[in-house]
Design a protein that fits this description.
Blueprint: E1 10-15, H1 25-33, E2 42-48, H2 51-60, E3 68-75, E4 85-88, H3 108-119, E5 122-129, H4 143-176
Parallel strand pairs: 1-2, 1-3, 3-5
Antiparallel strand pairs: 4-5
Length: about 180
Amino acid sequence: MNNSRKPYTVAVFGCGNVLFGDDGVGPRVIEALGGDSLPDFVLVEDVGTGIRERLFDYLLDPVICPDLIIIVDAVDFAGTPPGTVLELRPTEIPARKVHDFSLHQFPTVNMLAELEESSGIEIKILAVQVGSVPDYVRPGLSEPVVGAVERVCEIIMKLVRNKINREVNSHDLRVSCY
């Protein structure tokens, strides 16, 4: 019997460098999520500043790619209060703002848009507005960004629950058609 089921249907990637203040929010969210509270079909991974390589793997072999990718990263949008959580799709990032995403995101935003368009994979970006990203090594998140970590975890859990509900409903529809 050929088991063509994907190993993961949801992937959550935390991006950032924990040595540079609020840029470490992605890895901190991954740590806060913990693997035990999520179903087996959810991949949770701290990718540091190396998400490009992971996305490139998916572009080369879309068969292994999850149905939903959630990217957690720091962002610096002028005028946005620190700790604000923005839920975006790759196409919703204004062209003038693409360069504002942390350096490990650019040109990754273009890769995400291409991956979503060419494969039908749903991609969500949970961007947390930074309070500060120092020019020198200084680990630790600012207070507003620490407060955002729990909100991001709640959004991720909601997205995973919605994915479960869609799969259950989809399965029920298939069964009722026979």
